Amino acid sequence: MKIAVILGTTRIGRQSEKAADALVKQLAAQPDTEVTLLDIAKYPFPVFEERLSMKTDLPVELTHFSEKLAAADAMVWLTPEYNGGYPGAFKNAFDHFRAEYTKKPVGICCVSDGKFAGIQASLQLQTLAVHVGAYVCPTKWLVGNVTKVFDAENKITDELTAKGLDRFVQEYLWLARAIVEHKKKH
How far is it, in rounded angstroms, from Cα 63 to Cα 52? Predict the structure, then answer.
């Protein structure tokens, strides 16, 4: 199963890279998974004017991003929470696509420097996923105190954070595999 993990922030000094690194490693270690990290900071997303499917002169990087999304059987959206919501850079990148998300299982992971662990951003992402016709995993990985729960090599040092990742990966892969297998049969 091909999984695209979208790292949805371009902020300098972002802490969500630590969580993305841990998540990608854990997903890639599972049987029959191929994981691609799509870091929106590495793509030149213009301010949204129209979906890429409606444009004729696409930058090659955005075509590549679209192809990676389309090829994915499943996705995980990982963002920090800024001011009670997900980053505008994620929404801008997200809006360039539509069909690439439809009928795909989506996992949601959010981080914050505070104790509430991105819960508000995660709820907004859940609403966004439903709106584009994706299937949302009810279990999320929410990482609070992100600056304190990873070491210098991005390894999780907090037991609850590690257990949360384990549970998320287990539940997400169960849902993703069930949906992908059903789609193959039908």
Answer: 8
What is the identity of the amino acid at 69? L
CA distance linking residue 104 with residue 89, whole number of Å: 22
Q: What is the CATH number of the domain that holds 164?
A: 3.40.50.360
Q: Domain limits at 69? A: 2-185
Q: Which positions ≥6 away from 34 have C-beta within 8 Å?
A: 1, 2, 3, 28
Average pLDDT (146-168) is 95
Query: In which residue are the tokens 């609070």 written?
Result: 144
Write the DSSP symbol of residue 53: G
In 8-61, beta strands by DSSP E: 34-39
Query: Residue 4's beta-bridge partner residues?
Result: 36, 75
pTM for this predicted structure: 0.93
- Integer Rg of the chain from CA: 16
Give me the residue label for tokens 């809006």.
95
Residues 6+ apart with CB under 8 A from 139: 107, 167, 168, 171, 172
Which pLDDT value is given to residue 53? 66
* Number of independent structural domains in the chain: 1
